[in-house]
Amino acid sequence: MKISEAQIQNVIGIYKEKKMKKNPEIFTNTHVILHNTSLLLVSLDLKRYHAKYREIPTVRENLVQDLKNKIQSGTYNIHGLDIVEKLMGREAADLLSDISSSE
Predict the structure, then answer these.
(1) What does pTM read for this prediction?
(2) Rounded to whole angstroms, what are the CA distances from 52 to 59, 64, 76?
(3) What are the phi and psi torsion angles at 46 (to 5°)?
(4) Which residues contact 12 (CB under 8 A, 6 or more apart)?
(5) pLDDT score of 28
(6) In angstroms, rounded to a whole number, what is the distance separating the alpha carbons of residues 98 and 71?
(7) CA gap 79, 63 in Å, rounded
(8) % helix / strand / coil in the chain, to the nearest 5?
(9) Within this chain, do residues 51 and 6 fall inside the same structural domain, yes or no?
(10) What range does the domain containing 8 cover?
(11) What pLDDT score was predicted for residue 99?
(12) Average pLDDT, stretch 38-58?
């Protein structure tokens, strides 16, 4: 399953909110420097992961071709349980996202 750009931005937003709640503004010089260094490291990590995400093609040609071949040959079968599992997984992810953003 591919993770959408919106989902990544949502996770980044939640991460930033939780980080800010755990680390309120610190006024001493030493703590500000440490806090800024920590933010810089997080920022570098996010940039690295975002670059890796950008490398994933929007359309994965091998999967599309495989599906086309199965559909054309009549061997593409979807089981009801697979559909239910995907729907429930999506609902669970949305619910967790809603809960996290309301905290």
Answers:
(1) 0.32
(2) 16, 21, 31
(3) -60, -40
(4) 46
(5) 47
(6) 36
(7) 18
(8) 80, 0, 20
(9) yes
(10) 1-56
(11) 76
(12) 84
